[in-house]
Amino acid sequence: MEYIILGIILFAIIVIVSRIKIVPQAQVYIVERLGTFYAQWTTGPHFLVPFLDRISKKVSIKDQIVDFKPQSVITKDNVSMQIDTVVFFQVTDAKQYAYGVERPLSAIENLCATTLRNIIGDMVLDETLTSRDRINKQITAILDEATDRWGIKVSRVELKNILPPREIQDSMEKQMKAERESREKILLAEGEKKSKILVAQGEKESQILRAEAAKEAEILKAQAEKEAMILRANAVKEKKILESEGDAMAIANVQNAKAESLERLNAANPTERVLKYKAIESFPRVADGKATKIIIPSEIQGIAGLAAGIKDVVTDNQAE
Q1: CA torsion sign, 124 to 127 to 131 to 132?
Q2: How far apart are the first and last CA of the chain?
Q3: Residue 28: which of 13, 46, 51 has the closest Cα?
Q4: 181 vs 174: CA distance, rounded Å
Q5: How does pLDDT run across 195-249, given as a tens digit for each residue?
Q6: CB 90 within 8 Å of CB 59
Q7: Contacts within 8 Å (CB) and 24+ apart, 49-56
Q8: For position 165, what pLDDT does the model report?
Q9: Residue 77 is inside which H or E element, if any?
Q10: At what angle do helices 298-319 and 272-287 cross, to 10 degrees?
Q11: DSSP letters spanning 1-39
């Protein structure tokens, strides 16, 4: 009997320990009691009432990423293509996520596919290929609104790949190649044009610089010649000034000498005979000119006759 009681106690302990549940971080447990919703447990230890409570669903509240398989869509210009999408979402309400929809991921996938077909159906091929951001935003807004009542928050939807038919891809590649070749030719032409323009501008500037250099050289040459002429003229002028000043000084010296001579002669109180002798001395200087006629004063003529008479007398006395 004791063994039975011990077994019952051991069984009760095992049952009680097994009903203690610890909820990990970033998870929520949905607990049902007698088949109906009872509570949602967050992080930490919890206890399940034996035979009454059970954990119906474990929900992760971390951000989740789901890569859906490619969906076939048709554009407005009847081009069929394959587009696969990536959806980023987070469970914000575990209870609604558990009871709001059956297979929520499948529901999101189907909703994403139908929304994508509606959006692409209103766009042509070229617009589809160049409007990824707009398509992403439209799908995100529609999915977020539709999944809100399921306790899901769709944060982002990305178009992973857009795969048009093989012939369309070949055509697009040829078009891109033609556009690249066209751009290459345009760039080469523009480069050659710019090169010619730069060469012409360089030649023009070179000619302008040469002309300006020649002009400046002529100006400098003319200025140098002008300065040389001015210097020569100044030299001639200074020479003439100096010569004039020298002549003036010479004349002044002569006049001063004569004046001094006259003053000395006057100071000596000369006799009449001395004055006559001085007149005779100045006569050769008077006759040494270029004049063709010479007027001799009568006093000098008398003096000359007296001198001649004296010469004859002296000569006769020597003969005797």
Answers
A1: positive
A2: 223
A3: 46
A4: 10
A5: 999 999 988 998 999 888 889 889 999 898 888 899 888 888 888 888 888 887 8
A6: no
A7: 49/19, 50/15, 50/16, 50/19, 53/19, 55/21, 55/29, 55/30, 55/31, 56/30, 56/31, 56/32, 56/98
A8: 77
A9: none
A10: 100
A11: -HHHHHHHHHHHHHHHHHTEEEEPTTEEEEEEETTEEEE
pTM: 0.52
Is residue 233 helix, strand or coil?
A: helix
Exposure letters 127-148 (e unless 16+ CB within 10 A, then b): ebeebeeebbebbbebbbebbe
CA geometry: angle 186, 187, 188, nearest 5 deg: 90
Return the number of other C-beta atoms located less than 10 Å from residue 113's C-beta: 18
Which pair of tokens denotes residue 271? Answer: 């006799």
Q: Strand, helix or coil at 47?
A: strand
Answer for the pair 71, 46: CB distance below 8 angstroms, yes or no.
Answer: no
Q: How far apart are CA 9 and CA 306, in angstroms?
A: 200
Contact call for residues 315 and 295 (beta carbons, < 8 A)? no
Q: CA-based angle 240:246:247, to the nearest 5?
A: 90
81's CB contacts (< 8 A; 6+ apart) are: 72, 73, 74, 75, 120, 125, 128, 162, 163, 164, 165, 168
Could you give the 3-state DSSP secondary structure of residue 100? coil
Q: Is 35 exposed, middle or buried (0-12, 13-18, 19+ CB in 10 A)?
A: exposed
Q: Which residue reads 């949905």 in tokens? A: 30
The residue that leads in pLDDT, 305 or 276, is: 276
- Which amino acid is it at 138? Q
The first and second tokens of residue 113, run together, are: 């596919």
Tell me how many degrees the CA angle 287-293-297 measures, rounded to the nearest 5: 70
Q: Which helix (H) or strand (E) holds 76?
A: none
Residue 291 backbone phi and psi in degrees, to 5: -70, 145
Q: Has residue 254 got a pLDDT over 80? A: no
